[in-house]
Design the sequence.
């Protein structure tokens, strides 16, 4: 998909496009959104047409990413409420505006430089480097031809040229940097007590009437959820590699073509003395030939061992080729004849030789076998992807396809929206878990679904819904243990909340924690900061600490939602800021760059004119079904 090929761009540039959401209404307020659209057009910027297929492809991929981030499937209404459709439109508007500006400015990149950048793309490289055939397979599986991809990369590079010219060298003002550092480095110390079930005391068993009343008031929360039977077919290099046969001849061929990987070159421990001219070096060499030692000569010249040592180096590591050739031709313990080096006349001594070490084929064959299997599995994933899609188009279900292509399916007899079995146990063997569960609960049995892109695993997954068990109301006796457990938790929470408020009130009046929470261990934490994780406290808890003034107290829930923590801020420390550059400075600079670039793009868009086919957008995002 297109987003795969945008990853080479700097993240600040991409974020800059996303930042246009805030300013989008400036554009849409003047946009003509109802006329002059072709049947396949989603929007236009100037003379540049944004196709419906482009918008649909990016929208689908971005929705899958959001689903993975939140851990569940978002409905079309939720996605629109988050502004996903407008965010994507703004990104596409920004790209189109910069493309037209690049044409106006006459920007370009040579074919040679473009080829070099494409060949350096990690996704197209195998054990032996760039692989053109593999690149074509990846492009084909993502719906691209080679010319389309090359053109997309060319446009991306030109956009980056404009972006760097507009905002590439911005730095944050000193006042802003210092304010940010003070905020970032502020530290707080607290004392606190944790109230758990032990502090709640005994919770008496509820009567049957209390339990029944509790159940009736919360009956909906005890319903059995909807379960779905799902058939999965996962296609990844990992699932295929074990079935791929690699011949010994192929392993040997790779071993010979990548011999440098398994060879440690000869290294020598060398000393050298540099002379002002060749005559001086020749005279010194003659003295060594008559019995003067190298060390004695160095001492005469007031050189220490550190002054003469070149270290233990390979021939390649020596910058002076003449010195390297002479040094690696000497036997151990010998001193060279005078050498005309780059930095003067030189005498070199070999103190020690570490011979070349070559790992034999037998020692690395397993590693090479796995590498070759993984490389071929990646190619096979792309080939099988196309075959599976063809079979799906012909009407075959996943079980039939798996039998035909000798693949394995996974059948899950029952799973709810959260990925749990009817007994409450989580199901871990679902590849692309979030996307598949979200899709499975949106579709019906017998309806063909789209493949899920398993980007982290480098593959794909398909799924069929084979059956649906509708939600049902569970009788009181069926869930009685669960009802009683929740009743006890709720009663415990009530008692702990009251106790926590009592302790906090006493602390607020100046009473010590030790007295206010008698019998409960008082703990202390020093130097808590906003940006640094703290054991036992999540980001929400840290936020509460930094909202509380020094000497004041507060309450937060424990992670289980039952207990309570009563705390008091005992110290606030704002360290003195230095002028040393930090990561925060880069963050501020990126934010400024994004703001400036966003403003520039909005201006270009206004100059060019932007229009949106709202009917098509509503159809593609599901808004027309409300």
Sequence:
């Amino acid at each position: 998909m297109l987003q795969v090929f945008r990853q080479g761009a700097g993240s600040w540039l991409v974020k800059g496009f996303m930042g246009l959401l805030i300013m989008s209404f400036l554009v849409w307020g003047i946009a003509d959104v109802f006329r002059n659209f072709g049947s396949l057009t989603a929007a236009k910027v100037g003379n540049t047409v944004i196709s419906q297929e482009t918008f649909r492809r990016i929208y689908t991929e971005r929705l899958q990413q959001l689903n993975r981030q939140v851990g569940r499937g978002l409905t079309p209404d939720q996605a629109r409420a988050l502004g996903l459709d407008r965010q994507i439109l703004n990104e596409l508007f920004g790209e189109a505006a910069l493309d037209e500006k690049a044409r106006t400015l006459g920007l370009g990149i040579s074919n040679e430089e473009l080829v070099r950048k494409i060949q350096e793309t990690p996704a197209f490289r195998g054990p032996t480097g760039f692989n053109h055939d593999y690149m074509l397979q990846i492009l084909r599986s993502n719906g691209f031809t080679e010319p389309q991809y090359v053109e997309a990369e060319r446009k991306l590079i030109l956009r980056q040229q404009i972006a760097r010219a507009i905002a590439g060298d911005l730095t944050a003002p000193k006042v802003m940097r210092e304010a940010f550092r003070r905020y970032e480095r502020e530290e707080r110390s607290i004392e606190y007590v944790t109230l758990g079930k032990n502090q709640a005391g005994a919770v008496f068993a509820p009567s049957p009437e209390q339990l029944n009343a509790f159940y009736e008031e919360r009956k909906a929360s005890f319903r059995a959820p909807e379960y779905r039977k799902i058939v999965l077919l996962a296609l990844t290099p990992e699932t295929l590699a074990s079935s791929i046969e690699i011949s010994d001849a192929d392993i040997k061929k790779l071993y010979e073509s990548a011999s440098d990987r398994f060879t440690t070159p000869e290294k020598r421990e060398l000393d050298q003395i540099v002379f002002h001219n060749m005559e001086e070096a020749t005279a010194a060499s003659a003295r060594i030939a008559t019995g003067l030692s190298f060390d004695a000569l160095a001492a005469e010249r007031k050189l220490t061992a550190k002054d003469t040592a070149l270290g233990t180096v390979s021939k390649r590591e020596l910058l002076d080729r003449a010195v390297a050739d002479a040094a690696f031709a000497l036997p151990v313990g010998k001193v060279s004849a005078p050498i005309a080096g780059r930095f003067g006349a030189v005498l070199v001594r070999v103190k020690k030789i570490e011979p070349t070490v070559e790992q034999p084929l037998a020692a690395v064959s397993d590693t090479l076998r796995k590498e070759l299997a993984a490389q071929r599995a990646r190619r096979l994933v792309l080939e099988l992807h196309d075959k599976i899609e063809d079979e799906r188009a012909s009407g075959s279900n996943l079980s039939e396809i798996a039998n035909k292509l000798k693949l394995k399916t996974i059948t899950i007899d029952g799973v709810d929206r959260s990925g749990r079995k009817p007994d409450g146990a989580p199901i871990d063997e679902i590849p692309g878990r979030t996307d598949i569960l979200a899709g499975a609960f949106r579709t019906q049995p017998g309806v063909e679904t789209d493949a899920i892109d398993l980007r982290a695993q480098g593959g794909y997954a398909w799924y069929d819904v084979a059956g649906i068990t509708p939600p049902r109301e569970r009788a009181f006796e069926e869930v009685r243990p669960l009802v009683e457990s929740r009743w006890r938790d709720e009663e415990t929470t009530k008692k702990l909340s009251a106790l926590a408020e009592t302790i906090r009130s006493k602390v607020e009046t100046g009473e010590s924690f030790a007295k206010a929470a008698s019998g409960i261990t008082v703990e202390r934490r020093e130097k808590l900061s906003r940006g640094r994780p703290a054991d036992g406290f999540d980001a929400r808890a840290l936020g509460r600490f930094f909202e509380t003034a020094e000497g004041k107290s507060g309450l937060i829930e424990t992670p289980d939602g039952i207990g309570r923590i009563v705390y008091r801020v005992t110290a606030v420390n704002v360290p003195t800021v230095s002028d040393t550059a930090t990561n925060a400075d880069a963050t501020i600079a990126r934010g400024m760059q994004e703001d400036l670039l966003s403003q520039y793009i909005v201006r270009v868009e206004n100059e060019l004119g932007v229009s949106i086919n709202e009917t098509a957008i509503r159809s593609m995002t599901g808004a027309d079904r409300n």
